[in-house]
Amino acid sequence: MDERLAEAAAAARRRAERRGARIAAGATELEQRLADLLRGGLVAVDGAAYGEWEETAARMVDAQAPGLAARARELASLRGPGGDRASRLLAECALLHMLNQGFLHLDRLPEPLAATIRTRVGIAVDTAALLASATPVRDHWLVLARSDSDDGRLITRRTWLHGRRTGRMALLLSYGAGGRAPELSPTPGHVLDAGLAYYPAARPLRAALATRHTAPVPVSASASAFGPPPGSDAGQALAAYGEALRDDPWLEAWPVLLGPVIPVPGPDGDWQLADAQGGSALPVDPRIRDRTGLWRLAAISGGHPITVFGECGHRGFTPLATWAPEPVPL
User: What pLDDT score was predicted for residue 13?
Assistant: First the structure.
């Protein structure tokens, strides 16, 4: 039995080494493509050149580096006026260059950052191995929000939790392929006494449910009398995102509790969440096309301060839930 286990472990190491070599070759190819792009000038790049990035993305898939493929597709999708497109191209090129160089020099990096880079290039951590080795963080976790997204091939369910004692945020991910719904996850507005195992990262956020000590109970039925967790103002929310970005430069957004704030619609369809005490505000992410949830948020507020949970990123704030006084998904 021990010999078979040793052989299986050795085979797994060889597979990992072969995959690492393929990804390294892909990262090296991407570095050459970036050098060619910058040598030719970003402003001069026209739409026809983006087909080459689509081909490059396909080769990254072949190299078993879906994260690098996604970054290449992002470059292929950038549009806009010349100057604006050039600045966005430069930002994406810088992020891709950092990711390539990070993977090519993993042995020089602290392990938490190396773990982040492996995740970003698309090397997944085995959940069973994580649960077998990690020390769970036990807390009473308030389920803040849950959302599903569908890219046509895979349904991704994101569930956000907040620990009452630790104050930590956690993100649970589950997937459904082939038209199947993702596995069941805790319902927003419930409290779960459980242990969570965080995936390794420079800024841990994603977690796996390790042990449930009790069944989830609604906030109203919880003896702990959960209310909205403490909120932060716009400046503190931006600082929290900035600190997370320092550890993970490829981070799109960071979960924050914002409040007390007042949702304010603008004349051109833009929205802001303004600090109740005045002085600052966060713009709502303009990519939110369905404004129904935003008007619902304004109706819940009625012009009065509320606490809102969502994600703060470089494009703005995405509201996901609020309290009135119960958490209301948006």
Answer: 83
Beta bridge partners of 207: 198
User: In the chain, which ranges are continuous DSSP H helix?
Assistant: 2-40, 50-62, 66-77, 82-104, 111-121, 127-133, 234-247, 292-301
- Buried (b) or exposed (e) across 115-135, using 16+ Cβ within 10 A? bbbbbbbbbebeeeebeeebe
What is the token pair recorded at 34?
A: 């970036």
Q: How far is CA 108 from the centre of its chain?
A: 25
**Cα–Cα distance between 197 and 199 in angstroms, integer?**
7
Q: Distance (Å, rounded) from C-alpha 137 to C-alpha 22?
A: 35
* 3-state SS class at 325: coil
The pLDDT of 253-268, averaged and rounded, is 90
User: How far apart (Å, rounded) are the C-alpha atoms in residues 268 and 34?
Assistant: 37
Query: Structure tokens of 187?
Result: 């319902």
Band (182; pLDDT cuts 50, 70, 90): confident
Residue bearing tokens 């449910």: 209
pLDDT tens digit sequence for 72-125: 888 877 765 555 777 888 889 999 999 999 999 999 999 999 999 999 999 999
Radius of gyration of the chain (CA): 22
**230: confidence class by pLDDT, cuts 50, 70, 90:** confident
The amino acid sitting at 41 is G
Phi and psi at residue 321, to the nearest 5°: -160, 155
Tokens (6 digits) for 289? 């096309």
